[in-house]
Predict the structure.
Amino acid sequence: MSVIQVWRSLNAEQKQILADKRIDASRPIDELLALMKPLAACDTLADKARTKFGCSFALAIVVTIVGVIFLLNVGGIVGGATALLLVAVTIALGYFYFWMKKIDISNNFRQFVLPVLSVFREDIDASKPVNLKLDLSSPTDKSKLQSESAPYAAGVYHKVIDSMYRDPWMSADAVLVDGSKLSWSVTDSIRERKKTKRNPRGKYKTKTKYSKKTNLEVTLRMRKKTYDVAAPAEAELTADEKHSTVKVERQVQSASLDPVVPRALIDLIADVYRNASLTKKEAGA
Amino acid sequence: MNCEARKGFLTLSGCENPVASACSNCGRSMCTAHLAPQTGFSMCYDCAATNQNVQEEEYDDVWSHRYRNDYYTTTGYTPLYSSYRGSGYYDRQDANSFDDTVRDSSEDDVDRGGFGES
């Protein structure tokens, strides 16, 4: 199936999500996954096709420029028609390339959100809504820029500019089948470093490097009559009459913009359960 | 008879659905929701997950069962098992509280005697 066929099969809400690059939904887990899986399929195909279209578009520009110059010199109806055809093909390739860029959503969606929700699907109470907020736009979107350093020199680079971005791209809460309430959020802090140098041939070369810190925050509110809870290392445990609440955070650092691995969040939540045991009454039930 | 599948990842719990057929591999009784369509509904998801011939789709139930098996094996995570499945408002403890009341009132009858003793 082509990306266009898959995109056409999406409903209006799904197309709107791709246009807005944002999800703010409150619905049962199975409905949420049914909404999201076709988007992931579309994004997978669009990612693959975009690379092909991008290369073809670049090649078409070169061929068209050279071809048009040559054909106009040759002249005649055939030469003119062929030149027009080359221009039309290049415009079509460019149109599809930019359209696919427009519907592209963050890889966090396919490589983090969907696996996490799929793994926890049977832990989440199917009759209660999951509240999910996702920002699937680029992490280095201008709206997420927090600060930009003044240019400075470092080593061979005569101009270095550091830009800091903050991207709180996911927050969710859900009621689990054991009556616990789970909520989590994911926030990326990104440093974009643009370094410019002049090489021995006098050309200016600019490199852009990213480093990212992902903060994962989890709060799990568990029933006292179901669980005896001990706090995992570096977690905060509070309790009221009926519930124990565990808050735990983790930071994951990486040298690229690649999505954080789902395992980081799954481990964090599983650690809370590792430190919980069923109350005697529940275990004996 | 209920389905013998164990649902969940963080905690495991029983499935309340009625049995549709037995898994052709492990023989456990399963409901239709816990039989893998990729196997023509002949194998449960646990068996399908360990069978390399069964193809998974992106983040489908075979994938999530494979992930679960792998996670439990590599991390040593042991999920808590509870047989409780409920709507969320009343749980087993609430149900048990009625037993306590009955026992208390019957004990009251014994300890305090009755009209006959006065």
Remarks:
- Confidence is low (pLDDT under 50) at residues 85-95, 100-118 of chain B.
- Strands of chain B lie at 6-7, 11-14, 21-22, 29-30, 80-82.
